[in-house]
Amino acid sequence: MESEKNWYVIHTYSGYENKVKANLERKVHSMGMEDEIFRIVVPMEDEVEMKDGKKKITKKKVFPGYVLVEMIVNDKSWYVVRNTPGVTGFVGSGTKPIPLTDAEVKNILKSMGIEELKPKLNIEVAQVIRITSGAFENWTAKVLEIYQDRSKLKVLVDMFGRETPVELDFSQVEKV
């Protein structure tokens, strides 16, 4: 089921993006669809303006007229989103919405200062792992500490007969 979860772009009346987000969040909650429609985002970025010699930072919509929705598309979820006031339709061909690629989503969320959901790693302290990328690629190491909040871990790499602590991203390791 998880593999069907993707980010989609919905088209809205211009200026209705936040209203659509609020309406859709209410609908999802009232209809108990939290397992099908997950996150609703209006991409914003900071815009710096100079006014009377002072810097003024305002939020500006990155894609006016569009809202991003992370969801599993089925007849019911499609209908709920499509019939939310202010929504004119999904971006895609006909009735089949086209999901954004992972890279597109990552770039959009990163530009907003939102990181994608942090990956969870099913590894424990003292376990031996294999490093899959970076300077120590294909080396094995012992897990010393796990920093779940930063998606990093500290491992001990055996280098020239000495154990050296190295900090790695979750994405750089795998279970042995």
Automatic annotation (TrEMBL):
GO terms for biological process: DNA-templated transcription elongation; DNA-templated transcription termination; regulation of DNA-templated transcription elongation; transcription antitermination. One of its GO terms (cellular component) is cytosol. Residues 4-112 form the NusG-like N-terminal domain. This is Transcription termination/antitermination protein NusG. It comes from the Bacteria. The gene is nusG. The keyword Transcription applies. The keyword Transcription regulation applies. Participates in transcription elongation, termination and antitermination. It comes from Pelosinus fermentans B4. Keywords: Transcription, Transcription antitermination, Transcription regulation, Transcription termination. Belongs to the NusG family. SUPFAM superfamilies: N-utilization substance G protein NusG, N-terminal domain, Translation proteins SH3-like domain. Pfam families: NusG.
